[in-house]
């Protein structure tokens, strides 16, 4: 990762952590809940994705630098809020999947934001129970 990409990631992450996520958590948006790898507490992060059959697909804009991805690596059991309902499942990181191609099948507005703000895209599939 270049210095410029690292700076972009840090600026975008800080903005999301301090402004976007606290507001978004209060709205009826799609959300992924992981278990904090250090605290053991639930951590909720707004995400854009799509339910296809019994799998929920998302693309992380900062890949393994994202805190929720780090939490998934430590414990892949997650919950996903879709249309106001919570679903449990197991998250899988898919580094071999083409995230740009995947974004073409996910919600357009979120996909555009992920492409614009992202620095290290990573596809995630959640197999729902």
Automatic annotation (TrEMBL):
Superkingdom in the source lineage: Bacteria
InterPro entries for this protein: F420H2_quin_Rdtase, Split_barrel_FMN-bd
One family name in Pfam for this protein: F420H2_quin_red
Record-given protein name: Nitroreductase
The species this protein was found in: Mycobacterium noviomagense
């Amino acid at each position: 990762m270049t210095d410029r990409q690292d700076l972009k990631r840090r600026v975008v992450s800080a903005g999301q952590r301090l402004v976007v996520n606290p507001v978004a958590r209060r709205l009826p948006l799609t959300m992924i809940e992981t278990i904090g790898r250090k605290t053991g507490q639930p951590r909720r992060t707004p995400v854009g994705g799509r339910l296809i059959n019994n799998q929920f697909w998302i693309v992380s804009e900062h890949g393994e630098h994202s805190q929720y991805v780090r939490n998934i690596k430590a414990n892949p059991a997650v919950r996903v809020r879709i249309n106001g309902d919570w679903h449990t499942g197991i998250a899988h990181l898919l580094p071999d999947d083409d995230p740009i191609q995947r974004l073409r099948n996910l919600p357009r507005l979120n996909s555009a934001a992920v492409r614009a703000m992202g620095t290290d895209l990573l596809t995630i599939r959640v197999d729902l129970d």
